[in-house]
Predict the structure.
Amino acid sequence: MASQNLNVSTANSGAGDKLRDAFIAVRKMFHDVYGISSSYTDALDISGETFHVSTTQIEDDAVTQDKIANNAVDHDQLSGRYTEKAAQITSAGTVALSFSNVGIQDVVLGGDHTITISGFKTNSVMDILISGAYTPTLSAAGSPTFNRVGTSEYDNTTTNILQILCVDDDATNPVFLYAIAPYQNDDTP
């Protein structure tokens, strides 16, 4: 419902809305603001109603990070880049892995591979479960820099976890840190 004008006219002119009519208009606007779905009647009791705003009523640029309450977003609302695992890929040759919609990729190397990653964002971590008796090489668009963290190298006799942190998602010169290590079932770190 659109806003209703309350005609207050000028003091003591008697030309404005009658008091009852003005309060009915105010109640109708509160009925709408509080998102009450029942049709309006003059006798409708709206006390105890909780204010809510439909997202269709909020301008796209009106919600900012400081307006989101702590812990208001949980795992179910996160993008697939943080929650999804892609189906396993077995490939010989170049493997193109996009992290725009998934957070974990599972690759079985069927030959020496160049693994080209895309869909990365600064501060995002991309996980690749990787196995196969071949040598992987990392690549991305532009002139990427890949910096290894630690001394572990790919072990082609078992499954490894390759974690890649994007520290700069510049389209021309992206920068990544990565660590790779074999993993095994062990509940005693």
